[in-house]
Amino acid sequence: MYHKIINGETIAEMQKMPAESVDLIFADPPYWMRTAGVLKRVEGTDYNGCDEQWDQFDTLGDYENFTRSWLSECRRLLKPDGAIWVIGGMQCIYTIGAIMQQLGFWIINDVIWHKKNPTPNFMGTRLNNSHETLIWAAKSRKSKYTFNYKTAKELNTDTVSESEYSRGVRKQMGSVWKISVCQGSERIKDENGDKLHSTQKPEELLYRVLAISSNREDVVLDPFGGTMTTAVMAKKLGRSSVMIEIDQKYCSFGQARLNATEYEDSPVANAVFDQKPPKASMADMISAGYFTAGEQFCLKDGHAVATLLEDGKLLYNGEEMDMHSCAAKARAVKAKRLNGFDVWYVKRNDGLTPISAIRAAYRSRQQQNV
Ligand SMILES: C[S@@+](CC[C@H](N)C(=O)[O-])C[C@H]1O[C@@H](n2cnc3c(N)ncnc32)[C@H](O)[C@@H]1O
Questions:
Q1: Does the CB atom of residue 67 touch ligand 1 within 6 A?
Q2: Is any ligand 1 atom within 6 A of the Cβ of residue 214?
Q3: Which own/partner pairs from 267-270 qualify as long-range (CB within 8 Å, at least 24 positions apart)?
Q4: Residue 20 to residues 74, 140, 358: CA-CA distances in angstroms?
Q5: Mind listing the pLDDT tens digit for each residue in 143-164?
Q6: CA dist., res. 104 & res. 96, Å (int)
Q7: Could you tell me the distance, in angstroms and rounded to a whole number, from the CA of residue 252 to the centre of ligand 1?
Q8: What pLDDT, in 10s, does the model give residues 19-61?
Q9: Ramachandran class of 316: left when φ > 0, alpha when ψ lies in -120 to 50, beta otherwise
Q10: What is the signed CA dihedral for 236, 240, 242, 248, rounded to 10 degrees?
Q11: Atom 16 in ligand 1: which residue has the minimum CA distance?
């Protein structure tokens, strides 16, 4: 695994990189916030929003040209099955989304990052802006992008309460993520103890993005590195990272932050929830002695007996067939096939044992032997 921070202009730096060299991109570009004047908190102190030089553009045309250029480079750098996440607020996300579609990216989801602790609308002139949007898109419609579906379920605390989660309840991750804005000790401070960066993203957000849409040892690119949140989470999860950032100060603080980060070997980092169990064919289990040719398969109530043949098929009412078709026949259902592992039992120790339990024992032995 490697982690590289490049101090430079992102389009020029991306142009130097080889095509199809990146698995996943996370981009947190300038939002072109267009804030004017000094915003006051209710109690009268100044509120530091984002009025940085790097967020200034003269016209919508300029912003569109910039967006098209960096997104085109991103697309060139992605492997054919690669994907990209772009985060933005209401000021920019519609422009970005339209250009992504024009360039041929294939939108997988748009995710609402619902801020648990948003900045209030001090003036009371419009709704409290309490979310940002992430667009998750594949390089093209044909891309077989990574999605660790079961890992996402493990990380879903948005629609599962704490007590449900502790009881083992897991639900599909949805497209509204409830995460706090970056705060407390996570906020990087400069040499004077002030906030280093105005738009540092929360680690939890990046942790989710990388855990569910990349795998160990993948290469992750962030063309707008800032405080290097993406690299820090990539290192923690065992992914490589390439970060580009125009501001030298952000690069050096980000490098220190990265140096202080360790890889954490964990089921999430390795996406173990999504690993497919080893193959277990009937014929293999017969040769390994877990089943015997000639033994009887039956339903839970002991009826509808079929005989196991050497090749793993079943003989039922004089007809040879695979155990899944046979399961449908034995249960007399309309479907042509049922999962035989949910249907069949065999005699073991004077009782009936589901064949799925015997397969589980076989798989666990296989895994021990790896
Ligand atoms: C929205 S911030 C990213 C914050 C980052 N996600 C984090 O968690 O700290 C955008 C960053 O892009 C950098 N930037 C803006 N324009 C750039 C350009 N043309 N080339 C390289 N970096 C640029 C800015 O300096 C800024 O740090």
A1: no
A2: no
A3: 267/154, 268/151, 268/154, 268/155, 268/211, 268/237, 269/211, 269/216, 269/236, 269/237, 269/238, 270/216, 270/238
A4: 9, 13, 45
A5: 999 999 999 999 999 999 999 9
A6: 13
A7: 14
A8: 999 999 999 999 998 876 666 666 666 666 667 888 889 999 9
A9: beta
A10: 40
A11: 54
pTM metric for this prediction: 0.84
- Is 154's C-beta closer than 6 angstroms to any atom of ligand 1? no
- Report the nearest atom of ligand 1 relative to the CA of 226: 27
DSSP string for residues in 43-107? TSPEE-----GGG--SSHHHHHHHHHHHHHHHHHHEEEEEEEEEEE-TTTHHHHHHHHHHHT-EE
Tokens of 53: 């030089």
* Mean pLDDT lowest among 24-38, 156-170, 185-199, 237-251: 24-38
Residue located nearest, by CA, to atom 26 of ligand 1: 226
Amino acid at 358: I
Length of the chain: 370
Distance of CA 259 from the midpoint of ligand 1 (Å) = 20
- Please state the φ and ψ torsions of residue 166, each to the nearest 5 degrees: -70, -20
